[in-house]
Amino acid sequence: MDEGWTTVKGRHRRPKNTKSAPSSLLSPATRTVPHLEVTEMKDEYNTVLRKFMKSTSYHIIRTIAWEFTLNAEQIPITKAICLGIGTFDPSDGSLAIKQKAHKQLAAFLVMVEELEIPSLTKPQQLEKHTGGHIECIFQEPMFTPGDISFLNEMGHRVVESPVGSEAVDSQTFLYGVHLYKDIYSMSLQGELPAVFVGTGWDAWSEYVFKTPFRTSF
């Protein structure tokens, strides 16, 4: 995962055209193993989550999310959009791919949970920014029907591309790690999100925006 959060300001900054993802990478591969049951995905996620909660990364992420709320403007975050998390049921049964997706899911939901913490535990000035339910929306072209059912049963919503990217606004927590530049461009072409977690800003901002964001951290 990337180390920091980037707080973004402003609206309606238009990105330059960027290279699209190869179509071959968006096409489903031939399946060589049976599909997982939703119950199996839940078991695998819970195993990853338990291990993650014992890690240093877990506590660092919670601290970063807490520090963000302490410095946030009075704009409520009402939805969290997760892009390109990967499939929990890869066509070849790859353990590494499954674990990566589950780790990303765990990290994303930990951040959402921190942003949802009731404002009674935070300074009064944060009441308008945190403490309410945050809808979680997932967009991933490689999702299987089982992936979708897994997330639906957790209470989250899955949408097709580009619905999630186009839903980003100033009240959004946007999460997308190591995505193609055209996905970032599509997601950031309108109102900028309240919070963005993704590939390091310095790695690609000069190619996407004429005017850079004002960053923190």
UniProtKB/TrEMBL annotation:
InterPro entries, alphabetized: SRR1-like
Domain SRR1-like: 71-206
Compositionally biased spans, kind Polar residues: 18-29
Transmembrane stretches, start-end: none
Segments of this protein annotated with the region Disordered: 1-29
Family matches, as PANTHER family: SRR1 DOMAIN-CONTAINING PROTEIN (PTHR42080), SRR1-LIKE DOMAIN-CONTAINING PROTEIN (PTHR42080:SF1)
Protein name as annotated: Srr1 domain-containing
